[in-house]
Amino acid sequence: MKSVLITGANRGLGLGMVKYLTKHNKAENIFATCRTTSEELKNVAQEYKNLHILHLDVKNTTNYVDLSPQISKVMGTQGLNLLINNAGISTKFTKLNLVKAEQLLENLTVNTIAPIMLTKALIPLLKQAAELNKDKPVSAYRAAVINMSSVLGSIAQNDQGGFYPYRCSKAALNAATKSMSIDLKKDQILVASMHPGWVKTDMGGKNAPLDVETSVSGIFETVGKLGEADSGKFLQYDGTELPW
Ligand SMILES: NC(=O)c1ccc[n+]([C@@H]2O[C@H](COP(=O)([O-])OP(=O)(O)OC[C@H]3O[C@@H](n4cnc5c(N)ncnc54)[C@H](OP(=O)(O)O)[C@@H]3O)[C@@H](O)[C@H]2O)c1
Questions:
Q1: What family classification does the UniProt entry report for this protein (predicted)?
Q2: pTM summary value
Q3: Could you tell me the pLDDT band of residue 93, with boundaries at 50, 70 and 90?
Q4: Which domain CATH number covers 150?
């Protein structure tokens, strides 16, 4: 892959993805976006010159226009192969009698609106990569969007209730994945929703069974195998297909 952009790359799974891609030399250029650069991300950038840190609060959709020129400055006319909409939030205490409208709105803004609007903003670069890599089949090596979803966004697998802000925002993100896969099919751009597993991060907590490294290597192994027939699917890090 020539280029990957990952949002929310300063900690958690986003940082894990950056570390994996640099360590295993999986991408020629990596664009890591974050609100504040963590020491860990800075250290990786010092070691790997193909890691480019871009500042982005995904809530500021008006700033998205600044991204493409920064990517093109590095990539020239090669576009962007892979966009990973990873930045996300999860409001904790969200039983029906406690949930607040602001929590619903905040989760929807970061988990749903941002991935849709960022994908929209980066379509020209994704198209450029898809066009330039005509010789390759539809895949992440050509042009793809991976939306970091969650099994908590699965309506079919919801047997616990609650989590209104997070569940609704990820279910809506899944709906967006499906629409994007249909709308971008003609441009040969693959789109899929990905559940990373329950992972030990600030969001997942320390009781999570998976470590970041296991989840991330599974995610990239799965993403690397995706083809045209997988566009519009909801997949788990290990490749298992999940019900909507
Ligand atoms: N961990 C799990 O078990 C699990 C399970 C299912 C799905 N997921 C999904 O996987 C993704 C990554 O989760 P994680 O576990 O790595 O979570 P995390 O450790 O809490 O990290 C969240 C990341 O999102 C960024 N972010 C939040 N709001 C942002 C904003 N407005 N603008 C830019 N960046 C923002 C954070 O940046 P700041 O440092 O600036 O806040 C941070 O980099 C999320 O979409 C999450 O829903 C995680």
A1: Belongs to the short-chain dehydrogenases/reductases (SDR) family.
A2: 0.98
A3: low
A4: 3.40.50.720
Q: Does residue 169 form part of some domain?
A: yes
- In a domain? residue 242: no
29 falls within a domain: yes
Minimum-distance ligand 1 atom for the alpha carbon of 15: 43
Atom from ligand 1 closest to the CA of residue 59: 31
pLDDT at 241 over 90: yes
Report the candidate in 152, 157, 244 with the shortest Cα–Cα distance to residue 192: 244
Q: Rounded to the nearest 5°, which phi and psi values hold at 2? A: -85, -40
Give pLDDT tens digits for 124-139. Answer: 999 999 999 999 999 9
Instruction: Please choose from 11, 91, 198 the residue to mutate so as to test ligand 1's pocket, defined by most ligand atoms within 8 A of CB.
Output: 11
Q: Is 108 in the pocket of ligand 1 (CB under 6 A)?
A: no
